Amino acid sequence: MPDTDLRDRTFLITGANSGIGRALAEALAARQARLILAARSAERMAPVLDLIRQRHPGAAATFLPLNLADFSSVRAAAEQVLGNSGSLDVLVNNAGVAGTRGLSRDGYHLTYAVNHLGPFLLTALLLPKLRAAPSARIVNVSSVAHFRAKPIDWQLLAPNPPSTRGTFQDYANSKLMNVLHAKELARRLAGTGVTTYALHPGGVATNIWRGLPGPLQWVIKLFLISNEEGARTPLYCATAPELVGVTGRYYDKEREVRCKRMAEDEALAAELWDRSARATGVSGSRQ
Hints:
Layout lengths: L9 E5 L4 H11 L4 E6 L2 H14 L5 E5 L5 H13 L6 E4 L16 H23 L3 E6 L26 H21 L5 E7 L13 H8 L5 H4 L1 H8 L9 E4 L2 E2 L9 H15 L7
Parallel strand pairs: 1-2, 1-4, 2-3, 4-5, 5-6, 6-7
Antiparallel strand pairs: 7-8
Helix pairs in contact: 3-4, 4-5, 4-9, 5-9
């Protein structure tokens, strides 16, 4: 079960202005956690902060400007967090997109930039802060869609890719990358006190489907669970005492389950790391 009192721990959640991120923030605020809520829009985040403070007077929650599709924004956000005197105990890489076409500001396929490269860069930059905590966690919100992933077309992870469409296959492959990232981090951070987790939150009615046509969004959401239900497994991975020291595993419905066999490929995870490090300009060496 998750800790019920988290007043001494700080959680950074990406995509915290809506969906799973917002529901997770509210659940953590109820447990007195300190929150850094990251999103693109201060205007859209303001009502979330107001609601948290109304429901939980004295809640320590701050807004962090972050656009995962812009490496300069990711670096600025990381610098702001690193410059704070407080600790960082848990990073939840929650934000994502599906069905969205186009290029990021740095010229990368938008789906892979937001779902993988941006979180990869943010995580790498925040590692010194996480390693300074007595016991820290990195939680990657992936998806059961990663089981539909196919061999990665590395051209789609390079600048100016041959396609800018945001297909379901792109989404599935980016979610595979989330699992590979968590597992490679676990290997690189072994013995440091930082543990990693990847998870499927369930089929959730979030804004991740905003890139799809309106009628299709409406039909899909008839079969999805609530944001609060979707936040349960991220909350579990971020706070459960029984997961102390457990790392590099994949979860669904608040329990460990098997991931796609491709996600267990250490050579593939290492290659993804190296290519991501080159794309984002971070060190590819062991952390």
